[in-house]
Amino acid sequence: MNDDRTLVEAVLARAPGAFERLVREYQGLCWHIIQRMVRHPDDTRELCQEAFLRVHQCLHQYRHESPLKSWIGQVAYSVAKRHLERKRIPIVEVADDEDALSPLDRVSDGFDLEAACADEEIAAGLHAEIEALPPLQRTLLTLYHLEEVPIGEIAQITGLAEGTIKSHLFRTRARLRQRLEARLGEFA
What we know:
single chain, 9 helices, 68% helix, sigma factor, RNA_pol_sigma-70-like
């Protein structure tokens, strides 16, 4: 957090190379969020540039209340979400059983996503199924399982309640397990 403060102050003071350092530090996170939302390389590149332009324009509003990573992630998510809304692409698949389980019941379903990736055939099937997910579920899954962003930070990035994120993760893992079992037979 102290490094965040130093970097932000350097960028705001227009120190040579400071903004480039910020971009290098967070371009991977920005790319992952936007790419998982829009899945089009040209759009992703353009939207990443737009996200960092907004970061540059609005950095003076950053108040150090959350990690800089979360704040930049929130900007990237917002840019990608607006892009999908402009193109009228739904970002979430609505479940019929939305209220069937309480958020506490949805925290874990016992499915070990990482263990499922151990086998190459399963990993290929899992990758294909992840790519077929709606943008929000794909992004949440990527942030939580691949980027290892804590649920609290994902909530800051997306503006979603923690219980909603847990619910999406639970339903997404259940959907992946079901589709992989149908594709490859019982493996879990």
